[in-house]
Amino acid sequence: MFGCLVAGRLVQTAAQQVAEDKFVFDLPDYESINHVVVFMLGTVPFPEGMGGSVYFSYPDSNGIPVWQLLGFVTNGKPSAIFKISGLKSGEGSQHPFGAMNIVRTPSVAQIGISVELLDSLAQQTPVGSAAVSSVDSFTQAQMTPNPSEMFIPANVVLKWYENFQRRLAQNPFFWKT
């Protein structure tokens, strides 16, 4: 149902199911992780009106797990990138994983996903420093010209494609001549 990705590591798709509605991924050597991607595999959607809260857990100096809410995934938002590098020194938050005996080792952090009502997800406040990373868009003015490269305006490519489709509809073999 879920996947977890850390740069430079293999994709994890076999979450450990610790309750009917709770799943965890182990993150060994978590101190070297800056960002984590959590995504739905597309094989099983959430039931209607449900989504998944995404939590990060790391052991504190006493080995006790500290859970922090990162955000959520839903059928309408099936993936998210979270920055976790600054979370290791933060405070924990309320979480649904407290009463569970999840097997863990001291140097392993975890990503937890709790399936919950969408109304409940909307009322939760993720840790501020875990803000979902975003990619800034750029404009043509920001593109540095390179004399050895030629840029073609998107509208020219679109017009070519529309003409190609029209000609293909008229004669499927036009391109062979």
From TrEMBL:
InterPro entries: Hikeshi-like_C, Hikeshi-like_N, OPI10
Highest taxon of source: Eukaryota
Predominant cellular place of this UniProt entry's protein: cytoplasm
One Pfam family of this chain: Hikeshi-like_N
Single GO molecular function: Hsp70 protein binding
Localisation per UniProt entry: Cytoplasm; Cytoplasm, Cytosol; Nucleus
Alphabetized UniProt keyword annotations: Cytoplasm, Nucleus, Protein transport, Transport
Domain Hikeshi-like N-terminal, residue spans: 6-127
One GO BP: protein import into nucleus
Annotated ranges, domain Hikeshi-like C-terminal: 135-176
One GO cellular component term noted in the UniProt record for this chain: cytosol
Role: Acts as a specific nuclear import carrier for HSP70 proteins following heat-shock stress: acts by mediating the nucleoporin-dependent translocation of ATP-bound HSP70 proteins into the nucleus. HSP70 proteins import is required to protect cells from heat shock damages. Does not translocate ADP-bound HSP70 proteins into the nucleus.
Quaternary structure annotation from Swiss-Prot or TrEMBL: Forms an asymmetric homodimer; required for binding and nuclear import of HSP70 proteins. Interacts with ATP-bound HSP70 proteins.
Entry's family note: Belongs to the OPI10 family.
Protein name as catalogued: Protein Hikeshi
